[in-house]
Amino acid sequence: MAGLSDPALLSAAALAEAAERLRPHVHRTPVLRSGWLDREVGAEVFCKCENLQRTGAFKLRGALNAVFSLGDDELARGVVAHSSGNHAQALALAARERGTRATLVMPQSAPAVKVAAVRGYGARVILCPPTQAARKETVRRLVAEEGLVEIHSSNDPRIIAGAAGAARELLEEVAELDLLLVPVGGGGLLSGSALAAHYHAPATRVIGVEPAAAATASSSLARGEIVLSNDPRTVADGLLSNLGEHTFAVVRRLGAAVATVEEEAIVTAMRGVWERMKLVIEPSAAVTVAALLDRRLDVAGRRAGIILSGGNVDLDRLPWLETRA
Questions:
Q1: What's the average model confidence in pLDDT over 293-320?
Q2: How far is CA 146 from the centre of its chain?
Q3: Chain-wide mean pLDDT for the chain?
Q4: How many whole angstroms separate alpha carbon 232 and alpha carbon 213?
Q5: pLDDT in the model for residue 114
Q6: Can you give the pLDDT at residue 315?
Q7: What's the start-to-end Cα distance of the chain, in Å?
Q8: Max alpha carbon distance in the chain (Å)?
Q9: pTM above 0.90, yes or no
Q10: In the CATH scheme, what is the code of domain 60-150?
Q11: Where does the chain have alpha helices with state H?
């Protein structure tokens, strides 16, 4: 694959090895149905509940695969990453389970619940201004000064191979899906899901969903090159990253599409899932439901899988309460 120095890192064998490596450490999350959602969109919808994963998000899969793939010399140095929350929690727990130290660079705007969770897993947290440039520069400085090993939240073949496990499990459990919808920010979950479908269900069309306010993935595919964000603002704070060299290469090569949803639709979908399905999901997970409810995709009469990517929510900052205020 163009953009990948070693395509074998994302081969069917590599994904299978990642799944086996993670088996003792992750939950095989449930796939749930909702009569309300089926009726609203006129389709059969299968929800892969990664909001019920350890650390509350799919990110643990990639972080564990990356950390458990490190050699002894790298483990001794410790790991570092920047993240608004879910990757930070995942890397903190993965590092603790592998017996190494983790440093997480988080924006000052990160939800308090996520910062507290990262510290609770034993990691060091360094807060920085809430811009991509500040986050990246802080990580670069720590790598240079302390020799830490960076584990990027998405643009790493080990992260992609681990993230693929969520879609792989869904496709094993539910046959003949017409569509698979996943949130997209940096593209780790989207590229991993596209690979899982490519190897296990090639007839399933994979579609990423992102906020219209941060539509860099769709812009990148349209232009044929990576488009960087200009520090957008969206309620889906976990989807602020850009596609990277590896994720863009996989998504483009495998023909995954990207749809966008508006802020109001995200909040409406999130609240609907809370109220009707009794599931706590975060705004970044709600984008897939929003795409269905807002009719951004024609799924009537079809079988659609969606990955509810996470459920880490700051209960003091619920989006519908903030909107009302």
A1: 93
A2: 28
A3: 94
A4: 6
A5: 82
A6: 86
A7: 48
A8: 56
A9: yes
A10: 3.40.50.1100
A11: 12-22, 35-41, 59-67, 72-77, 86-98, 112-120, 132-146, 157-173, 188-200, 216-223, 245-254, 263-272, 283-293, 319-324
**In the numeric block, which tokens belong to residue 188?**
């780790």
Q: Distance between CA 193 and CA 214 in Å, rounded?
A: 21
Per-residue pLDDT band for 230 (boundaries 50, 70, 90) equals: confident
| Residue 46 and residue 31 in contact, taking contact as beta carbons nearer than 8 Å | yes
Angle at 21 between CA 20 and CA 24, to 5 degrees: 85
Residue 24: count of CB within 10 angstroms of its CB? 8
| CATH code assigned to 7-57+157-324 | 3.40.50.1100
Region 261-275 average pLDDT: 97
> Cα 61–64–70 angle (5° rounding)?
140
Phi and psi for 82 in degrees, rounded to 5?
Answer: -110, 145
Q: Is the pLDDT of residue 324 over 60?
A: no
Sequence spans of domains, the chain: 7-57+157-324, 60-150
Distances 170 to 75, 201, 239 between C-alpha atoms, Å: 32, 11, 22
Helix (H, G, I), strand (E, B) or coil at 305: strand
CA dihedral 27, 189, 154, 129 (to 10 degrees): -90
Read off the pLDDT of residues 46-71 as tens digits, 9 standing for 90 and up: 999 999 999 999 999 999 999 999 99
The DSSP output letter for 310 is B
